[in-house]
Amino acid sequence: MIIDFIINIAYLIGALAFVWGLRLLSSPDTARKGNIVAGVGMVIAIVAAIGQPIEGASNNYLWIIGAIVIGAIVGLVSAKKVQMTAMPQMVSIFNGLGGACAVVLAYAELVPYYSGIKELDMAGLIIILLALLIGGISFTGSMLAFAKLQGLVWDSTITLPRHDIVNMVLLLITLGMGGYLVASGVEGGLLMGSVFMVLALVYGFSFVAPIGGADMPVVISLLNSFTGLSAAVTGLIYGSQFMLVGGILVGASGTILTVLMCEAMNRSLINVLVGGFGGGGASAKGADGEQVAKEVTLNDAAIQLFYSQSAIIVPGYGLAVAQAQKVCKEVDELLEKNGVEVRYAIHPVAGRMPGHMNVLLAEADVPYPKLLDLEEANDALKNTDMVVIVGANDVVNPAAEDDPGSPIYGMPVLKVWEAKNVIVLKRSMRPGYAGIENPLFFHEKTRMLFGDAKDTLSNLASEIKSL
Amino acid sequence: MDTFIQFFNDESNLLLIYLLLFTIILGFEVISKVPTVLHTPLMSGANAISGVVIIGAILLIRQADPDDYLTLGLGFLGVILGMVNVAGGFAVTDRMLEMFKKKK
């Protein structure tokens, strides 16, 4: 009796720790403590789950301990080893594993149900199918997101013609199959149940397939919220309020981030999911071939920067790819030494996950008060001498402001052209990930500096040193 | 319709619905207005919390028959997956936040 009481209190404390931890996580000064509080909550709950009295249970503790040890080692080692630039991939994998766990658990309930060992009412069956569906989407979706971020898969190779319709049909078939299973109860059979699971897994893959590039932060936050929901639904299977609360909190935070990311691009979620960016009218405008981008020499760029009053660096995915965050900080320090005020303009969807650039710059020891968000940056840009764009493209595209025909028209962008001079560090003239022509490169204030971001920045650093 | 009304009128289901709704609202209230600098750690920390599924996997193994290798195997897999999510998620978030911290 008393042991039940202790276990229940433990779960309650665990749930409160999640809420409190998340609260602390949303403010920079307390964030680290918040993460630890949430982690402690999780440990308490795991101990409670192991200790909770279950009548007639055979416990099989060896299996549990073995799995926990293996999981903890794998998790801790990979968290320790991962490069900061590979953080979006890592987060995607961890996220997918949570979804996979929900699928495994739901399937483990389906087997005894269809073999007649365990009875379920309709609500119980619906819950299991929901866990399979949401968990399945989050699992394969996250794995594909990982493969895309890692550069293992290119968007064009896995999208079918009219992929939006394919997705719609696939979703309808999956839901139809679920409806059939609910209607037929035990008669449905394990085979059909397994088919439903496979359909959910295929749909997760197919749903992420057309989404790429600049839309990645949206889809990653969305998958995050799906994993939370799948955990919550799995909590219903086990009658665990604790799992329900934890899962819902994650679902809520993922949803908030998804909405923030969509707002940052001025697009609806549906629009992102259908994969609306790219192709189409994108090439229509820049086709006149008359425009020539003007280049600048390293030496000129170094002099301009060195003798300016203020500079703003605009990092993008290219910074992450080239792992140029540390050299970037080196240039920053050299300029500051000469009295140049250096700051960074961070667009909410720069990079491939929410807050991607912040993490990279933090790794390079850039103090976060130097990072300006979209609004602050647009105010500051008007009075800035030099803008250096490192591997960003769509987030500084003036077409978003003045070309109603552009696919990104209406998206809030960093108005770098309002500064006095713009230097663009870029590998080549190729359009950005979204495949959209960028008139900024032909702007009268713009000078191009071609090459790998890391090499260019370190050359720039040595030029500045020699001045 | 009748099943639905029955479901809703059941005391414990009703409590669950209350819990669900209040948690959703609480979640939105607690997390709204996150500064950009914390987007990644928040996502990754929340991600670690979604590892709560591990609780289900532990309960599954404990209730399984010692000879039922299918269930044990699935539960074993579930605990590993959940634990990687939990341990890796919290550790990676801490690593990120450590970087944020030291330049105060």
List the defining traits of the structure above.
heterodimer; A: 467 residues; alpha/beta; Rossmann fold; 3 domains; six-stranded parallel sheet; B: 104 residues; mainly alpha; 5 helices
The counted number of beta strands of chain B is 0
Residues in β-strands, percent of chain B: under 5%
Taken from the alpha-carbon principal axes, the silhouette of chain B is flat
Q: Give the spatial strand order of the biggest sheet of chain A.
A: 3-2-1-4-5-6
GO molecular function (chain A): NADP binding; proton-translocating NAD(P)+ transhydrogenase activity
InterPro entries (chain A): DHS-like_NAD/FAD-binding_dom, NADH_DH_b, PNTB-like
Main location (chain A): membrane
Membrane topology (chain A): Multi-pass membrane protein
Task: Briefly characterize the structure.
The complex is a heterodimer of chains A (about 475) and B (about 100). Chain A is an alpha/beta fold. Chain A is about 60% helix and about 5% strand.
What does this structure look like?
Chain A: It is a multi-pass membrane protein. The complex is a heterodimer of chains A (467) and B (104). Chain A is an alpha/beta fold and 467 residues long. Chain A folds into 3 domains: 1-79; 87-277, no CATH class; 284-465, Rossmann fold, CATH 3.40.50.1220. Chain A has 19 helices and 6 strands. Chain A is elongated, with a radius of gyration of 25 Å. Chain B is mostly helical and 104 residues long. In chain B, 81% of the residues lie in helices and 0% in strands. Chain B has 5 helices and no strands. Chain B is flat and about 50 Å long. The relative contact order of chain B is 0.10. At the A-B interface, helix 1, helix 2, helix 3, helix 4 and helix 9 of A face helix 2, helix 3, helix 4 and helix 5 of B.
